[in-house]
Amino acid sequence: xxxxxxxxxxxxxxxxxxxxxxxxxxxxxxxxxxxxxxxxxxxxxxxxxxxxxxxxxxxxxxxxxxxxxxxxxxxxxxxxxxxxxxxxxxxxxxxxxxxxxxxxxxxxxxxxxxxxxxxxxxxxxxxxxxxxxxxxxxxxxxxxxxxxxxxxxxxxxxxxxxxxxxxxxxxxxxxxxxxxxxxxxxxxxxxxxxxxxxxxxxxxxxxxxxxxxxxxxxxxxxxxxxxxxxxxxxxxxxxxxxxxxxxxxxxxxxxxxxxxxxxxxxxxxxxxxxxxxxxxxxxxxxxxxxxxxxxxxxxxxxxxxxxxxxxxxxxxxxxxxxxxxxxxxxxxxxxxxxxxxxxx
Length: 344
Hints:
Layout: E1 2-8, E2 26-27, H1 36-48, E3 60-69, E4 75-80, E5 85-86, E6 97-98, E7 100-103, E8 116-119, E9 132-134, H2 136-144, E10 153-155, E11 160-170, E12 177-190, E13 194-201, E14 212-215, E15 220-226, H3 236-242, E16 245-249, E17 267-272, E18 277-279, E19 282-283, E20 288-289, E21 293-295, E22 301-305, H4 311-320, H5 327-331, E23 337-340
Parallel strand pairs: 2-12
Antiparallel strand pairs: 1-13, 1-15, 3-4, 3-13, 4-9, 5-6, 7-8, 9-10, 11-12, 14-15, 16-22, 16-23, 17-22, 18-21, 19-20
């Protein structure tokens, strides 16, 4: 497996699947972007280096996410705040609390589809703080199920800012500005040292060190650096002993059951899943649009009990991610995950 750190040299056009409409339309940036962004950038550069489509038939993105390069050259992964963590102290970020699955109290009816509800148990209620990410230390703490505090969080404003750009459509006949067709679109300006961590396998050819790949709309450049990020290793002994675990999506998940994951050797008892998202795209090989598919968003957390004890199967799931009925989406890195014990 080859792991890269892709550090952009310019602002990035990271579009989702929302089309421009009438004059004055505004295109929002998608952050974090889909893993297909990195899969397409890496495969395109590998082909530029001489790899054929046949040689890339087994290409598979195995990891994708945001990363931070320190002055010491060390690279840390960054995760969006998992859906089982709530922080309501806007100023100090000092009151992080884990959601805890609890049986629905007798006499209370709900449409919740699972036997337990993820509940917030805190003395002082408050509105959750949005736009938080876990640092490398925060990821390790979450994996251990230990309490999180302010030093484990970083605000999205410290990682990137949006940079709106004005555009005007051109008349194809006169090659001048078309009347009434003005629009704005957001670009993402990553802060110094912030980039994307992407790992892949299935290619005999490697990218040249310090080379460039084209990322996002307009093909803005990003420098390729080979890295060895810290391993994501849960406490398998504790999971096996307790017979339960949490599962978090590190990239969007595509499941036959909608938001319910498939193929996990345990019983799903609770879930904290945000509103479904839709992914699409364009297939450059067939020159056709990719089918639009609904996905469970990155950061969604699922709680499992009654683990059957097949640790090898669980480790394989953590390594390979969820299978997909669409091989191309699996190769693009959708359905990656992290497994951890329940929070202490």
